[in-house]
Amino acid sequence: MFLLTELTSWQRGRDSGKRVHARDIFENGYRLFLINPNRIVDLKVDDDGSMFLFSDNHRDRRENLSFVRSNSTVAEVIAQHDVAFHSKFITLGFYPKNNPHKTPVDTTIEVEDIAYFDDYNDPDHPNCVWVVYCRKGFRRVEQLVEGTLEGIEDRLRTGTTSSTTTTSDREQ
Amino acid sequence: MVNRAWGNYVMLNTNRMSDILQLDSGNTKFKYLQAPNDHRCSWDTLECNTAIGQLESVADTEPDHEFGVFPIFPTLDITRVTIDTPVDTEIDWEDVCMVYQTDRDATLGVSHMVFYTKSWKRVTVIINLTINAVNELWHDNPD
Q1: Rounded Cα–Cα distance for residues B34 and B49 (Å)
Q2: Which residues, including other chains, have CB under 8 Å from residue A147's CB and lie 6 or more apart?
Q3: Which residue in A72, B28, B114, B120 has the fewest CB atoms around it within 10 Å?
Q4: Residue at a domain's end among A46, A81, A116
Q5: Are residue A106 and residue A123 in the same domain, yes or no?
């Protein structure tokens, strides 16, 4: 199962950029991500949380690893990885051309191909998140989809959305 | 593959599918990556008349064994299938890319199978099973 976790640092290996920005740290002290534990390597204890390496495309030997610090403990990461998915596939509403004003198109992808979900930084569209997934080993795709991190986590676990939490409901 | 496979039936592996869409016609369209662990292998775009729900259901069904037993002929020569003796070979279902029959395969009761030796190599073989027999092998693997 995916891990909904507060990340305090995410140093990208592919272009040396950061996915947890100074503004996230200033406002919340972290940024919330829904990540796939099947991409994690070298999981270690880091104070009260954990640190690990993360591969966006674990099938591609050219893909460098990112360095990540998380508020989740090693035990929490392991426990979440052991939770079974509802299905090997999930259907997400893909916004054509990543435009949240367009009508989303239901598209089914394999859960194992998804690297992580990240919030969409637009308060006018609280029901949008980015999904980063791989068309197997060939290509990494960043796609804007309908939903919230909590709602998608629910769907991955149970097949339905019981949570109606939106980005604005969280402390931001 | 269409108009080449017998009856246009091709047995595919759901672990190679991505971006599955339901079309207005009721058909299903998806990207199929034959070598999922090879970054050089781009996708094929396929359309079939199997519903998305059925694809998901098949993907969520675990075979009894991770390996299937396939009687493989020593050569990829269709004229030798009545002469050579097939060799039972265990292959991980995850590595199987597709199974299909040409019209001649259907007459002889054999099939073509494409599988990968993990990330290393694409292999095409002739097996001494019909496409229906492979389907039954997957659903009801012998203990």
Answers
A1: 20
A2: A92, A93, A127, A128, A129, A155, A161
A3: B120
A4: A81
A5: yes
Tell me what ipTM this predicted complex has: 0.85
- A24: three-class secondary structure by DSSP: helix
**Could you give the 3-state DSSP secondary structure of residue A81?**
helix
Domain shared by A98 and A119, yes or no: yes
Interface touch A87/B60, C-beta < 8 Å: yes
Global pTM?
0.88
Same domain, A76 and A106: no
The minimal CB distance from B39 to the residues A62, A87, A88 is found for: A62
d(CA A74, CA A95): 35
From chain B, the residues in CB contact with A87 under 8 A are 56, 59-60
What total of structural domains would you count in chain A?
2
User: Any residues with CB less than 8 A from the CB of A53 and at least 6 apart, and which?
Assistant: A13, A40, A41, A42, A65, A66, A67, A68
Give the domain range for residue A50: 3-81
CB contact under 8 A, B19 and A109: yes
Per-residue pLDDT of chain A (172 residues; tens, 9 = 90+): 999 999 999 998 877 789 999 999 999 999 999 999 999 999 999 999 999 999 999 888 888 899 999 999 999 999 999 999 999 999 999 999 999 999 999 999 999 999 999 999 888 899 999 999 999 989 999 999 999 999 999 999 998 876 544 444 444 3
Q: Which of A33, A54, A81 is the last residue of a domain?
A: A81
* Cα–Cα distance, B7 to B101 (Å, whole number): 9
Asked if residue A21 and residue A77 are part of one domain, the reply reads yes
Is B43 within 8 Å of B35 (Cβ atoms)? Answer: no
Q: A107 and A146 in contact (C-beta within 8 Å)?
A: no
